[in-house]
C-alpha cells in the first residue's frame, strides 16, 4: 500500500502538482504566459521607475573601490546572477561571482570584507537563504544591496540599500527575472559612471544599446511565439529535455529547464556547454535545445550540435541572425536579432519561457502516459 505523507512545510506555498490536468498548474501556466508576453514593456518600465534610486545608490557608493562582487540568489534569481555576471565584470572591471545564496551563507562568506559588494536577489523579498546570506555578508563588513519584486518586504527594510523591481510573478518567474537582470545591469552602468576609477566606455556603449532593447524584445516575442508553439508540438510527447549554453548564456538554458520543470510534468535539465562533451549526455531521441548567440562559444556550440545529432538527439538551436553553420546541423534553428552579448542572456531567455508554456499546453491536451520515441531524430 502506498504511504501518504503529510505535505512538507517547504512545499506549503505551491498548490500545483504534476498530476495530469491539474487545474492549479493549468491556471499558473496561463498566468506565466500572460506575464511572459509583456516583458518588453515591463523591462523598460522597471528600469525607468527605479532609475532615481539606482542613481542614489551609485552616488552613495561612488568612493568605494570594489575588489569583488557577489550576486546571490536561489532558483531563477541565481540564474539571473549567472546571466549578468559578465556585464558586471566588463563594466566595473571587478571579479564577479554569481552564487547560490545558501552556499554563500553556509560556506563562502568568510572572505568577504569592506571591499566586497554583495547583491542578493529575492523575488518575494524574504527568501530565507538569501536573507541569511546578506546577513552574513553584512556581518563580514561587506556592502549589501537587496533586490526584490515586492515592496516593503524584509529585504527592503533590513539593509542599507535595496532595489525594487516592478514586475509581477503570478505565474512561474519570467518578467520578474528578466526585469531584475536589466535593472541590475543599469546599476552596474551607473556605478561605473559614478566612480572616478573605472572606465565608462563599456558602460556608455551598453546604456545606448539598452535604449532600443525593449523594441528588440517586442519583435522577438512576436516572431518567436508561433515558432515556440510549433516546437512544442514536435516535443509534445517528450519526457525529458536538455538545455545547453556557455558562459552567460547558460543562464538562458537554466531558465528554459526551470520553466519546463515548473510548467510541465516532465524532467528537464541545463548543462554547461563544455560539460556536455564530458559524458554521454544524449541518448537516441533525447531533445536538446542549444543556446548559442555569440561568437565566443560558436565553435564549441557547433561541436555540440554535431555530437548531439550523431548520438541520435533531436537538436534545436537559438542562434543570432545570419548564423549558418549550427543552423545547417540542427533539426530546427530559431534566429534572434543580434544584440550585445551582455544583453543576450535576457533576450534568449524569453523564447524559452514561451516554449515552456506552449509545451505545457500540449501536455494538458495529451491522454495519460507519454511515448518518448522520436521517429525522426535527424534534420
Give a written overview of the molecule:
The chain is an alpha/beta fold. It folds into two domains: 39-199, 3-Layer(aba) Sandwich (Rossmann fold); 215-364, Rossmann fold (3-Layer(aba) Sandwich), CATH 3.40.50.10490. The protein contains twelve helices and ten strands. It has a five-stranded parallel sheet, with helices on both faces. It has a five-stranded parallel sheet with strand order 7-6-8-9-10, with helices on both faces. α3 runs parallel beside α7 (175-194) and α3 runs antiparallel to α9 (250-263).
Key features of this structure:
379 residues; alpha/beta; Rossmann fold; disordered C terminus
Q: Poorly predicted ranges (pLDDT <50, ≥5 residues)?
A: 367-379
Distance between the amino and carboxyl termini: 46 Å
CATH topology description of the largest domain: Rossmann fold
- Overall tally of domains: 2
List the SSEs and their pairings.
Blueprint: H1 23-36, H2 39-60, E1 68-73, H3 76-92, E2 96-100, H4 101-108, E3 116-121, H5 128-139, E4 143-148, H6 154-157, E5 161-164, H7 175-194, H8 201-234, E6 240-245, H9 250-263, E7 267-272, E8 287-292, H10 298-310, E9 314-320, H11 325-329, E10 332-336, H12 344-364
Parallel strand pairs: 1-2, 1-3, 3-4, 4-5, 6-7, 6-8, 8-9, 9-10
Quick overview:
With 379 residues, this protein is an alpha/beta fold. Helices cover 49% and strands 15% of the residues.
